[in-house]
Structures are given as C-alpha cells and as structure tokens.
Amino acid sequence: MEPVATLKFMATLTAQLGDQIVVGDGPKGSRVVIDVPSVSLVGDKINASLATQDAADWLTLSEDGKLGALDVRMTLKTDDDAFIYVEYQGRANMELGLIATAPTFQTSHTKYLWLNRIQAVAAGHLGSDGKLVYQLYEVVVAAED
To answer: How much is the pTM?
Structure first.
C-alpha cells in the first residue's frame, strides 16, 4: 500500500496588502510586517471575509531579496457568522510575485469542521496593485495498491 496525494480545488482567496513596517535585518533575515486590510475566501462550500483587523504577514526576506518566507495569520467570518482562524507559511519568488503556501484552519462551527481535518496548499500571485490571489486546494491522501 502506497500513499498518494491528489489536489482538489477548494476556494479562491483574495487579499489586499496594505501598509508595511520594515523591521530590518535580524538573525533570520530582513523582516517586513505587512498589514492585510481585506480578505475574501470564496468556494463552493465557503464564503468568508476578514473578521477583524488581525491579518498580517510577518515576511522574512533573503539577503538578496529574491526569496520571501511567509508567516501569515488571520481570522475570517463566513456569510453565516462562523469564525475561522487561518494560518499559513510558504515561500515567495519576490522577482516573479509567485507564492506557494500551506494553509491550515481552525473552527468550532459544526458546518465548517471539515476545515479542521484538511491540509491545504495554495498557489498565489501578487499583482503590482498589491492584490494577492491564491487558488486553494485540499490535499487528498489515499492508499493505492
């Protein structure tokens, strides 16, 4: 029996990036904290937006500035008033604006408990307007003979 992973489309996440605080060089690289003032998550099973102004990316840049290590956290509120905590880490090609992340979710709302059980991956692109668009996929792991 071999485990096999496939991807199942889940939703589109759109985020508008806001103000930045350049903390500067530290032991892990150059730190930039980026505010995220608006987020929407839209899919067949979920429709949510930013619940509070708690969303930010604690980005660390490589010495040459070409690689970014993301550390993002936010709380979403669905259109039926459920709260969902989202966090993800990932890597960004800063030259091309292409990003790969691995989001996880936490909620106690019975309709969305399925989110607690999945690992997602996302492929994103940052536009010149500061809009970040991710395509989110559920990683489905199955046993294959």
So the answer is: 0.92
Domain ranges of the chain: 2-139
CATH class of 2-139: mainly beta
**What burial class does residue 133 get, using C-beta atoms within 10 Å of its C-beta: 0-12 exposed, 13-18 middle, 19+ buried?**
middle
What is the rounded average pLDDT of the residues 41-45? Answer: 97
Q: How far apart are CA 59 and CA 139, in angstroms?
A: 25
